[in-house]
Specification:
alpha/beta
Length: 152
């Protein structure tokens, strides 16, 4: 079993350290990016299972990052926004761009830890369901071919 990987994209070192402390006992591989551009490169290179994303950062902000990655339902990662900002329009836009959850600072580190665990569990279940669906589709195709051959 592989160790889940979490990408934290935030320009505040204090928050990075707090999140690392909150998640360190959960056996995760934690990677950091200081802005959305760096985060985008790490997302492609490291293939994390979870992204914790700040909205307001230099170079490329959180909404720009979300537009760039174009989240799809079968992506292997979840995205959680963690921000001290975020008006209703930004919250709605974030969900429209595919984020799973939106947390406002100040954070409960217990809540972050539990939410991270839940997001990782959900992605694992989604992957398992996709694999089962693929197996069933393959089995249906095989049985359909067998029935067609019997009818002939």
């Amino acid at each position: 079993m592989t160790i889940p990987k979490i990408l934290i994209i935030d320009d505040e070192p204090v928050l990075q350290m707090a999140l690392e402390r909150a998640l360190k006992n959960e056996n995760y591989d934690i990677i950091f990016a200081d802005n959305g551009l760096e985060g985008f490169e790490l997302l492609k290179k490291e293939k994390p299972n979870l992204v914790l994303l700040d909205l307001r950062m230099p170079k490329l902000d959180g909404l720009g990052f979300l537009e760039k990655i174009n989240i799809k339902p079968d992506d292997p990662y979840s995205v959680v926004i963690i921000t001290g900002h975020g008006n209703d329009r930004e919250v709605e836009r974030s969900f429209d761009l595919g984020v799973n959850f939106f947390l406002h600072k100040p954070l409960s580190l217990v809540e972050v830890r539990c939410l991270a665990r839940r997001c990782l569990e959900m992605k694992a279940v989604e992957k398992e369901l996709r694999e089962h669906r693929h197996s069933l589709e393959k089995l249906v195709t095989q049985r359909t071919k067998a029935l067609i051959n019997q009818v002939r």
